[in-house]
Amino acid sequence: MRPLTADVAVVGAGPAGAAAAIGLARAGRHAVVVDRSPFPRDKYCGDGLTTGALRLLEHLGLDPASISSWQAATSLVIRAPSGLEVSYPFSRRGQYAATVQRRQLDASLVTLARQAGAEVLDGNACEGITVDADRVVLKLSGTGPLHARYAVAADGMWSPVRRMLGLSLPAYRGDWHAFRQYFTGVGPQATASMRVWFEPEILPGYVWSFPLPGGAANMGFGVSRATHRTGSLARLWDELRSRPHIAAVLGPGATPEDRPRAWPIPTRLGDLPLATERVLFCGDAAGVGDPMTGEGIGQALLSGLLAAEALAGAGPDDEVAARERYRSGVARHLERDFVFTRMLGRALRSPRGCNAAVGISGATPWTRRNFARWLFEDYPRALVLTPDRWQRGALGGGAFEHPPARSAQETPPGTGTTG
Fold first, then answer.
1. CA triplet 351, 46, 195: central angle to 5 degrees?
2. For residues 301 and 419, is the Cβ–Cβ distance under 8 A?
3. DSSP 8-state class, residue 241
4. Which of 36, 207, 338, 371 could form a disulfide with 197 if both were Cys (CB 3.0 to 4.6 A apart)?
5. How far apart are CA 150 and CA 306, in angstroms?
């Protein structure tokens, strides 16, 4: 069988892989994306999108109106362990947070990758990889071998590419464990706002309820492996959602739409490999998730775009420059916020610290408004400590402020507004 060729082979067609493929195609590079699953396919997730993720989706050309499960949020309500509830409003200038089912979001990104000029071979698993001096060669399940100058491994938490290259961390099972379930017929409180409950025994973890169209919601919880023994997550979920203050928001008419689903979340940027020879790792494969919240879609999109930027800038023959460009981009636009957020997340490990954080953030209209922006990554988490990012646009408006979406070339990846 005749081998396929490409400038870059992208393994994994989730947000990180799709973003990398779109960025490469727009830079004039031939990208071939492979994924073992045919699209659309489900992806276990809380389905929440931060402002940083929304801005990147706008940059990629996504149209929210084309996705039926898209639900923009107008506010966030947080309940502290003490029982104090604070409502944090989002600005009405554009979108600052949204919920969208990953089945539809990821399929839309794959469509955008194809429209940009990338070749997508979904339903093709990567079964082997060889790295030579001038290329990588992928063994695919459904076609002949794929030869490319570089590979982008965006193949998830368990990253088969990382394993095949002998770079996996022994016994690593993620840093957070999450559990979600869809409900229909939820109550008015669940449809009106995003909600987060900090329950004392799962701190710094939390329970969430994110609204979807038609009276539906994605509800679930996440726990940190560092502070919580996972045990039976199903039993814990039954107990958590039966608590009066959570059940009251869910509403008496709420009906489970599916069975609960669990998944691990890697937040190990700096410990998992970021680049080796002619391979760059993105998204969950690089452990770029937020260590305080477990959120990872925005980080995945940004890492994919940074990988595309590095490969396009380095050219086909300078793998050293490609690795260094990528590492430098990740350090500037992801790593500093990662370290800062990990330190702040320690304050949420105790009820006392969590109560204080919610109380201070809800003290005035100004603190409520700006805490919501900071929490949803409207601007870089460590902006105050990184003056090189004090630039025009670092405190900009929300995404999708002027439909149709702004030109994909207007806001380059890694600017101050993306975190």
1. 50
2. no
3. H
4. 207
5. 14
Q: Are 165 and 129 in contact (CB under 8 A)?
A: yes
Give the helix ranges, DSSP H, for 27-95: 51-60
Residue 394: per-residue pLDDT = 55
Closest Cα partner for 173 from 125, 237, 230, 233? 230
What pLDDT is stored for residue 337 in this prediction? 83
3-state SS class at 330: helix
Within 10 angstroms of residue 264's Cβ, the number of other Cβ atoms is 19
Which amino acid, residue 262?
Answer: A
Q: Using CA of residue 347, residue 349, residue 350, residue 351, what is the dihedral sign?
A: positive
Please tell me which residue, 228 or 143, carries the higher pLDDT value: 143
Query: What is the pairing mode between strands 119-122 and 31-35?
Result: parallel
Give the Cα separation of 85 and 77 in Å (integer): 7
CB-CB neighbours of 38 under 10 Å: 9
Contacts of 163 (CB under 8 A, 6+ apart): none
Q: What is the pLDDT of residue 232?
A: 81
Alpha carbon 135 to its chain centroid, in Å, reads 29
- Cα–Cα distance for residue pair 373/64, rounded to 1 Å: 20
pLDDT(185) > 90: yes
* pLDDT tens digits for range 387-416: 565 555 555 667 898 755 444 444 445 443
Ranked by mean pLDDT, the top range of 227-241, 276-290, 335-349, 356-370 is 276-290
Question: Which two tokens mark 23?
Answer: 């960025």
Report d(CA 306, CA 260) in Å as an integer.
34
